[in-house]
Design brief:
Alpha-Beta Plaits
Length: about 350
């Protein structure tokens, strides 16, 4: 018998043995935690217990009723926390899922890099959301990473967690449901406990001062009494230097945040100026040589053109045929300039691209 046929036979035999092992026994020795999925729906807690069939409806508990809360707590206590985790599921409409491509070398500092991507990739800033991410793929040929980013407004999630905490329910993870409302993406957006956050520069200084004080206390007990005063002065000097360092760190952080705000303002102005330039270039291309403008008003998506032309009636079709404009019409009747023999016109049109605000006068 060929070798590949023997391997196929062994694999088939092992799979058959796997079906004979009870599900409860397989779950007990599985290294992957199983999920207990919960959802907040009005005053009810909808729960998908692991013992339920996948196609059955969730069990509902009224949080306002003591007996139903106690029943939920009793059932939850039967599940080993090392094998099961409580997951709060949020509706897909309350979160946002984005797929982002980044350079491959960004993987080494991915969490910090994504903080700068929130403003560009989502309608929120990094201080308005809780987020989680997962690396979907790595493409060495294009030198890119594909990231799935899940975000949820922190005010909404905080309110959901507060409701659960009032009745003693603390989830270990928070995930966003897919559009089908029955499956989750598996990306945890639960914020890290504030007590477990990385220490700030000031905390490092305080830890250093405590450690230094303990060491110094041991040294002082062995020093003669006449050296105590000198040691105290040296300690005060060290503490003062540490405080100066902490102040400098806070100052640098404040300057960095100010620079970020200014850079954002500059970027917005550059983008706005570029949009106006494109519109002016398009109008210059469209209008014939016997036409000139005395005034051009641009407010958000509305443009108002005022000027003279040898044949003003032809301007509507010329402007309307452009990919940049739509809804072109005369704002007022065309009149004749007796001194020049040209038509005076006022035309209104809509910018299809984006909203800008400028006024130009001859």
């Amino acid at each position: 018998m060929p070798l590949n046929s023997e391997s196929s036979m062994i694999n088939w035999w092992l799979q058959g043995l796997g079906f004979l092992i009870p599900t409860e026994l397989k779950n007990r020795f599985s290294p992957i935690k199983r999920r207990i999925l919960i959802q907040l729906q009005d005053e009810q807690l909808a729960v998908n217990w692991p013992s339920q069939e996948s196609d059955t409806s969730p069990v509902r508990y009224h949080l306002s009723l003591d007996n139903e809360r106690q029943e939920f707590s009793r059932l939850l206590s039967k599940y080993n926390k090392k094998k099961y985790m409580l997951v709060l599921c949020l509706p897909a409409t309350k979160g946002l899922k984005k797929y982002i491509k980044l350079p491959l070398n960004a993987e080494t500092d991915l969490a910090n890099i994504l903080e700068f991507e929130f403003d560009r990739q989502t309608p929120f800033t990094h201080d308005q959301i809780y987020s989680g991410y997962h690396v979907i793929s790595k493409n060495k040929e294009s030198n890119t990473l594909t990231i799935e980013l899940n975000v949820v407004p922190n005010k909404y999630l905080d309110s959901q967690l507060a409701i659960l905490q009032k009745v003693g329910i603390i989830p270990q993870a928070v995930e966003i449901l897919s559009d089908t409302t029955t499956t989750v993406h598996g990306i945890n957006v639960l914020p890290v406990d504030t007590n477990k956050k990385q220490p700030t520069a000031a905390r490092y200084v305080n830890m250093f001062l405590i450690l230094f004080s303990l060491i110094l206390l041991g040294v002082l007990t062995a020093l003669p009494f006449q050296n105590i005063k000198l040691a105290i002065k040296q300690t005060e000097k060290t503490i003062q230097e540490a405080r100066v360092d902490a102040v400098e760190v806070n100052k640098l952080r404040s300057e960095w945040e100010t620079m970020q705000e200014r850079q954002s303002i500059v970027n917005n102005k550059i983008e706005n100026h570029s949009s106006v330039t494109v519109l002016l270039e398009e109008l210059t291309r469209l209008l014939p040589d016997d036409t000139w403008l005395s005034q051009l008003h641009i407010k958000k998506t509305t443009l108002r053109l005022q000027g003279e032309s040898a044949a003003a009636t032809n301007l509507i079709s010329l402007i309307e045929n452009s990919e940049y404009f739509s809804g072109t019409r005369f704002q007022s009747p065309v009149t004749s300039n007796l001194s020049t023999g040209n038509d005076r016109f006022q035309i209104t049109t809509q910018n299809r691209s984006q909203a800008v605000s400028q006024v130009f006068s001859k």
